[in-house]
Amino acid sequence: MIKRTVRKIDFRLIPILTMMYLVSAMDRANLSLARAANNNQMVKDLQLQIGDRYSIATLAFFIPYIILEVPSQAGLRVFGAKIWLGGATLLWGVMMLCMGFVKTWQQLAALRGLLGVFEATLFPGAAYLISCWYPRRLMATRMSYFFIGAMFLNAFSGILAWGIGDGLHRKSGLHGWQWIFILYGLITIFIGICAILLIVDFPDKATFLTDDEREMVLTRIQRDRNDAVYDHLTVTKVLRHLTDFRIWLFGLFFCSAALCIYALAYFLPQILAGMGFDNKMSQILTAPPSFYSPIPCIIMAKIADKYNMRMHMVALNAIITVVGVAMFSQLSKDQTAARYVGVFLATGGCQASIPLITSWSQTCIRSQSKRAVMSATVVAWGGIGGILASVSFRQAEIPHYTTGIFLTIGLCAFAAVGSFCLWLWFMAQNRKADRGEKILEDDPDFRFQ
């Protein structure tokens, strides 16, 4: 009964969340694809080549995205996952559609800001929802299915954008970059409608389970970490939870991986062009590294869950990311193949890090209110990673992006060392709890993983 119920939950919860995060990833990153379409036609139309206008347009997304991460979690329980997450997806699809009709770079930046408002609900909401359904030993794998499934499908976005941009350029009086925004917006609106109809709510409200199945799910969560019962999110609890240093440390780990992901999403076509590839190949070659990334992501998530090696996998991925970034940025110009291999390593390393960091942060805490604050704050640091990518990968440094490259290497190296130090602290706290000297997370039976 347990395996059948878990599979039932998997099929109802993970696919729709994956599709929602897919359009989220596509919509926040397709700015670089639209920029490159038709030999940078969007740059000419909106005069993005002047100063740091393109960087400002990318940056505009992250300011509301960061600010609204934690507040967005309050609405999730009030309105339910269907309305809150599905409605947000529908609304940011409308923003994406509108981007196809902008006339100035200021209008583009404003719509990017509104995109950040609505997207702020999704990732922390999805991470929180997943953590409420599964015991800790299944969490990394389910987070990975959710995240990497979207990243794998997102690998086709570069090819899709190239096809749309070239195939529909000047159709109905619109340029290719406009059609990219319009069609991506329509896809997102469709997914948002599907989410409102299909997404499942929290275990205590799940109508697709029988009474026995619902009771079994809640019992497993209660036995695993004793927090199956919802405790209301209040301002006092939020402020208390935010004093936990682990939230901020996990946020920095998440930031390091997100910085690399956003840098590759926004600037990989220009990096590939710097390797000698033409405009067409620079867009097409963004896809293969993302086809590879599910392999290390799933393997490492299964190892993390089965052998409780969460820190080991987070640190390993950070090291792999450092090696990959160093390869594609520092090797000589005549080593194109090796540099492109570095793109694979960097992509796989940073993408595999996200679900591992997210799930590790959720396994070391108790109470649903703290779980909501943890997921929102950690993911907000991903927005800070996006800002750092926007400002450190400077237009003046194309195609080498020296500042951004060394910042990425430095933060990922910090994540590798920091995760090891945090693990040592966890083990020391567990030993104190075993000796009866300390109670962890207000539960005598709780231990860090």
TrEMBL record:
Coiled coil: none annotated. Residues 13-431 form the Major facilitator superfamily (MFS) profile domain. InterPro entries: MFS (IPR011701), MFS_dom (IPR020846), MFS_trans_sf (IPR036259). It is found in: Membrane. Keywords: Membrane, Transmembrane, Transmembrane helix, Transport. SUPFAM superfamilies: MFS general substrate transporter. The chain crosses the membrane at residues 12-34, 54-71, 83-102, 114-134, 146-165, 177-200, 247-269, 281-301, 313-331, 337-360, 372-393, 405-426. The keyword Transmembrane helix applies. GO terms for molecular function: transmembrane transporter activity. It holds the Pfam family MFS_1. It is a multi-pass membrane protein. PROSITE patterns: MFS. The keyword Transport applies. Gene3D superfamilies: MFS general substrate transporter like domains. One of its GO terms (cellular component) is membrane. It comes from the Eukaryota. This is MFS general substrate transporter. The lineage of its organism: Eukaryota, Fungi, Dikarya, Basidiomycota, Agaricomycotina.
